[in-house]
Amino acid sequence: MALLDSTNAVLLPPSPDAVVDSLRELISSAYLNHDTTSIHIRAGALFARLKALNRSANSAARTHKQTTADARHEMDQTYLGLQNLLYEKRHLEREIEKCRQFASTYQDIPLYGPEEYMERAPEEMRTEEILNNEHSLMLNRLSFELQERQRLDRIQKESLRQKEELLKESKAKVAVMDNVKTQIDSLMKKKVGDLVQSPAAAEPMATS
């Protein structure tokens, strides 16, 4: 009866012990009075059985060897895969550490404080979900800071535009005033000139 190797699930050939015991029995004193021919026939059958068991044992050994080699190869592949995963894990850990130590520009940007942010930011930028997530909160604070700076920049540009318009109006008014002053000065000079000439013109009329 074939045996089953529970370790590798390989069928093993029957044990030759029973055949060997039968051969030993043939040469024992119990068979001294038996017919030689029948003993030879019996011995030949037992030897044939023993050779068959030997062939089965060799075949089982080869099968077991191949199974062991396949299992070793699979184990080597698994070990190699594990080493690759460990290498990738260490690589990712190093990259994560680099990211943690990376000094980003946003760290130097002056932001609204938490209280000011809660007062000024719109509701959709300070929901409970956002406030409970440090990463999302920082992204929204940066976004709000950008919106505020853009709004203040628009106000500043509008103020500069209005200032330029007022300067232009002021310059225009000053130009008008200078023109009016020039005209007044010109009229005044002309009037004075007329007054100076009037007595000189009156003297010939008096002598005549």
UniProtKB/TrEMBL annotation:
GO molecular function: mRNA binding
Main location: nucleus
Pfam family, one: FmiP_Thoc5
InterPro entries named among the record's database cross-references: THO_Thoc5
GO biological-process terms attached to the record: mRNA export from nucleus
Transmembrane segment boundaries: none
Keyword Iron in record: no
PANTHER family attached to this UniProt entry: FMS INTERACTING PROTEIN, THO COMPLEX SUBUNIT 5 HOMOLOG
Family from the record: Belongs to the THOC5 family.
Protein name per UniProt: Fms interacting protein
Organism: Hermanssonia centrifuga
